[in-house]
Design brief:
This protein is an alpha+beta fold. Helices cover 26% and strands 31% of the residues. It is built from 2 helices and 6 strands, in the order H-E-H-E-E-E-E-E. Strand 1, helix 2 and strand 2 form a beta-alpha-beta unit. It starts with a helix and ends with a strand.
């Protein structure tokens, strides 16, 4: 369950950023998680609920936005969202090796006071 250590690092970053901004409480933590990131959002959310206790984020809400997989087809010169984990262009059926999004795991913003 690597989500526990990922969330621990994310909470440390969030607390540091909130303190840098002069905050004393974190109300909301917003993240973007890509479908190919290897992170299970439900497990990440569970880890957040466990780890936030005894921190300035104790009453905070975690908001996770899922980022779809987007690939690039060079022959068609366009982006596409694959039907599964094989990045096959739906137009020309070329297998793409360029994934443009879907691997993200980002702390995007915080609501603090």
């Amino acid at each position: 369950m690597h989500e526990l250590s990922l969330m621990q690092d994310t909470l440390i970053l969030a607390v540091n950023k909130a303190q840098e901004a002069g905050g004393s409480r974190i109300h909301r933590v917003m993240m973007r998680i890509g479908k190919l990131s290897g992170v299970v959002p439900e497990t990440l959310s569970f880890a957040f609920d466990v780890l936030k206790k005894e921190t300035m984020a104790a009453d905070a809400v975690l908001e996770i936005h899922t980022v779809p997989v987007v690939c690039w087809c060079a022959p068609c010169a366009q982006e596409f969202t694959p039907a599964d984990f094989i990045c096959e262009c739906p137009h020309c059926h070329t297998i793409s090796t360029e994934v443009r999004s879907g691997r993200e795991m980002e702390l995007t913003s915080l609501e603090v006071s």
